Amino acid sequence: MNKIQMKTPLVEMDGDEMTRILWQRIKEELILPFVDLKSEYYDLGLPNRDATADQVTIDAALATKKYGVAVKCATITPNAQRMEEYQLHEMWKSPNGTIRAMLDGTVFRSPILIDAVHPAVRSWEKPITIARHAYGDIYKNVEIRTQEPGRCELVFTGESGNKITKLVQELDGPGVFQGVHNKEASIRSFANAVFTYALSVKQDVWFGAKDTISKTYDGAFKEIMAEVFEDYKERFEEAGITYFYTLIDDAIARVIRSKGGFIWACKNYDGDVMSDMVATAFGSLAMMTSVLVSPDGVYEYEASHGTVTRHYYRYLKGEKTSTNPMATIFAWTGALKKRSEMDGIKELEHFAETLEKSCLNVLNSGIMTKDLVMLADPACVTKEVLTEDFLRDIRQELEKNL
Ligand code: NAP
Ligand code: MG
Q1: CA-closest residue to ligand 1 atom 45
Q2: Residues 6+ away with beta carbon under 8 Å from 22
Q3: Which percentage of the chain shows pLDDT scores above 90?
Q4: Which of 38, 40, 195, 297 lies most in the core, judged by the most C-beta atoms within 10 Å?
Q5: Could you tell me if the CB of 104 is within 6 A of ligand 1?
Q6: How far is the CA of 19 from the centre of ligand 1 (A)?
Q7: Which among 46, 84, 291, 305 is the best mutation to test ligand 1's pocket, defined by most ligand atoms within 8 Å of the CB?
Q8: CA angle, corner 21, sides to 23 and 116, nearest 5?
Q9: Residues 340-368 pLDDT 10s
Q10: pLDDT at position 345, please?
């Protein structure tokens, strides 16, 4: 069989631990036999990030900007314990954080649905995609805890010298205070990323905030989203999709009663919390796809779970594991599909779609990894498999369907 040719390289970011092992196996078993893979490889594994003083992460983000599409393996975000384990020179920052900041992107996460796993919310029939604004709010806050009575003020000093002072609260005893901010430019990019993505997948957008209570802060989000939407209004009408704003509590109630099939745009904290709720209600993190989209149309695909450390330690002892490769496979297919769309390579698109379909066929035939067996309707399970057997079954199915 002739391998499918590519035009532009895909930016490939390798990672750590069990997902690094999966990465290699997925490539060997499911990609390389079929595609003459053109990739620009960056090793974001922790040892190489340490050896390059994290320059490799920056280079990978720059390459993503240059080529437009990347696929990323899960990576370790170092903490004190990892400093010791890997003898690191520094506690390097989260690569995802670095890349997100450089691409100014929004993260979209959606579940992969299979017949055997029923969402905990019975009305959900289609995936719900969470679009999380990933800048500011409490993630860049300053906090004070006090032990005596006193007053706390919020002071803004403009470049012009203009000062705005507001009393936060005067307290007669110990208390806590918090200062948060956001940037108008960042909210605007978020809005652009969300509306652009919605057009590409032809799904409605919902956005909720608490502008009745936070009239200025959340009010700014509501206002800027509406303003940016004006540029998309016509294209939304043509695509037959809508933008809907409501209060965040009302949004949550409606999400639970909905059938799914839309994009739920969330402020940073809401997105953090609600994506875990949605992922769990749909099944598992190993069945979530995740893509970072920049406002200028750069895409980075990844799995939303971590490096599955516990499985890796077992792997190091020579044990075989039943680690679910779905999210990582779908990161590859997502990236290949986007690449084929940009370069107009029909065979590549067909390949990526067939690979996705083959994975689902295997799962829907009742063959699944342990994490899914534990969630699935027992009547739908025919066999619990190790990762390598699962990949082999997908390979067979893929060859049958291609
Ligand atoms: P994790 O790697 O997602 O794993 C947590 C647990 O979830 C696993 O122990 C496993 O449960 C289950 N699990 C996750 N993915 C699975 C899969 N594909 N197949 C089967 N089971 C799966 O999270 P973590 O243990 O909190 O973090 C490990 C490392 O990943 C950390 O160093 C963290 O910094 C990093 N991390 C990276 C990313 C990223 O790069 N996107 C995201 C999150 C975390 P059982 O052990 O019970 O089977
Ligand atoms: Mg979270």
Answers
A1: 310
A2: 73, 323, 325, 328, 387
A3: 89
A4: 195
A5: no
A6: 9
A7: 305
A8: 70
A9: 999 999 999 999 999 999 999 999 999 99
A10: 97
